[in-house]
Amino acid sequence: MDSVEIFVLVALPYLAISCFVIGVIYRFSLWFRAHFAANAFTIFPGVESRGKLAFEIAKEVTTFSRIFKVEKKLWIGAWLLHFGLLMALIGHTCLVLEWTLLWDVLSLDSETRDNIAQISGALAGIVILSALIYLLSRRFKGPMFQTSNVEDYFALALLLVIGLTGLAIRFVEHVELELFREYLGDLLLFRMPTEAPELSFYFLIHFLTVMLLIAVLPFTKLFHLGGIFVTLRLTNVRLPEGQS
Amino acid sequence: MTSSDRITVSESQEETLRAALGSKLNRPMSYYLETCARCGACNSACHMFSITQDPRHTPAHKMELLRRFHRRYFTFLGRIFPWLTRAREFSKASLDEMTEAAFECSGCRRCAAFCPLGLDPTWMISASRHLASIAGTAPEDLELLADTQSMRRLSLEDFMETYLRQIESLATQLREETGLPNASNPVANAEARDFLYIPIAGVHTIMPVAKIFEAAGLNWALSKYDASSYAYFLGDSSRVQPLTQAIIEEAKAIKAKTVVVTECGHSYRILKHLAPLWFDGVPFEVKSIIEVLAELIRDKKIAINPLVNSEPLTFHDPCNFGRNGDLFEAPRYVLREVARDYVELISNPKHNWCCGGGGGLVAIDEEDIKNLRIATGEKKAQQIRATGAKTVVTGCENCKLQISDLNDHYELQIKVRGVMDLVADALVIES
């Protein structure tokens, strides 16, 4: 590996992950340092038991039912985006490990597997991109334009670049999976990778933007990913347990 | 940047406002400020924006105006690159804009009921109102009403003689009307009583209840205080708490087991849900008058003739009763008992539309605000029309005044009543 490769493929991922971890700790420490509030939070009727609360949070996180009730178009956009991102995330786990068990259970040959991966990856990409384009266009008109910040456009644009280059890698370039697994495996075990994936054009952009996403996530609105679990609890729990 | 954006506030005022905002940054507020993704789901949930379609009326925007100050003074990025986060300094223009937004909100929390992230925008509205009050940009009417209430509490003795005389004459009137010989001046003195009833200004909140309580033979007292706190609408709990404390002390002095709050939305929320948190618990139960009426009917302590209320009627859930107060069942039970033809206004009362007058808007005597609340009350007018009800019953003074205004403006041809009025009408007094 030459020095550019070491910087991009070794230094940057560690840097991004460090930013992420520090950011998450920073965010939560700021929150937990803030003083308690003697106030009423519940949107009644709310739920009483922990089980029901967990169910309520799980329901909201997976179905976005509240958006569905008030704005159908936004629900389609928002749900598809998050679903697509989840699919992409799951799909990307094959960069680290082989889904041997799943393939064995389904008893699929390698050609079918590749086809499934090809199609599902493309689908997830297209779903993500369509949702992003809708959500971005929504922010250019009416009340959303007035409310939106640079941060809102930045987050959507960043995901758009990641999605586009991701699709380009799938269809224009080729990733040597085995090689990639070895490389990521080394990174995970804090070993210097012996061989590096080729820094082709789309891959490089995809990789850099993903690193940027990981690094800035805790410092931006994207951290609603973490906040939602706390805030949904606050307004759903039936009565304030003293303070929160 | 407009010219008024350049009209800055003085350094000391900026520091005062910064400190006031800082004092509001408790844990939930921090979650809310930093978790909002500005997705705008709340926009469609808001009755104001639904009607006006004015971007300034979206909850997301109203929150954003406060968040811009927060970013400017409390976040790294906002301090270094204000343009990147649209962070904004306190200036005449920015404060005016925030004030207008905060007082063009009825604080009904319907947006919070629909926020996919579980945030409560009214926290930010409340903080904005508090900043406006400090900056001197809040509506004068509310400031004046809040100050008058604080003054009355401090110099209660000056008012007492007149008050006692008025109540004495009401007691006489009650004896004459009902033939209940024992009805006497119920103003709280040192005697121990089971119930302490807290009215709001106006005979209409005292007479129906006095009639019912006397008929039921309750051992009750009438509070010397007004249940409402206008400072609550200014986001200023430091001015609300002394008023609440006075009621608590009064209840303790007569060893009241139950404090009964009249039909007033925010007072119910304050006494029921906030007072126990502010004062580390209270030594009595807090109930709305409607809950007490439900119990009196259920326990057959009073006799009712539902034939008196035979026209179709519906119930409007005040936001401070329903989604903010957990009082869904009692009014429905009472209305089904005292009326013949009760129809629901909405299938899920948690999602009821605001009448448009909440958050103290009814008390602000400004033309713009009045026009806005009448215009945005259209949602409520549509709902009422759809039921075909001839009487709209509700349990909050704000809602009653607002729905009466809607009745005039939209020619709904309805009567607006309180739950306690209907019970008093249907009451059968056995001599």
Question: Could you explain the architecture of this structure?
Answer:
The complex is a heterodimer of chains A (244) and B (431). By secondary structure, chain A is an all-alpha fold. Chain A has eleven helices and no strands. In chain A, α1 runs parallel beside α10. Chain B is α/β, with parallel strands linked by helices and 431 residues long. Chain B has 21 helices and ten strands. In chain B, the strands form three sheets. In chain B, strands 2-1-3-4 form a four-stranded parallel beta sheet. A four-stranded parallel beta sheet of chain B has the order 7-6-8-9, with helices on both faces. A two-stranded antiparallel sheet of chain B has the order 5-10. In chain B, α11 (140-154) packs parallel to α14 (237-253). The longest helix of chain B is centred in the middle third of the chain and has 23 residues, at 156-178. Classes of the chains: A mainly alpha (244), B alpha/beta (431). The interface between A and B is large, with 56 and 55 residues.
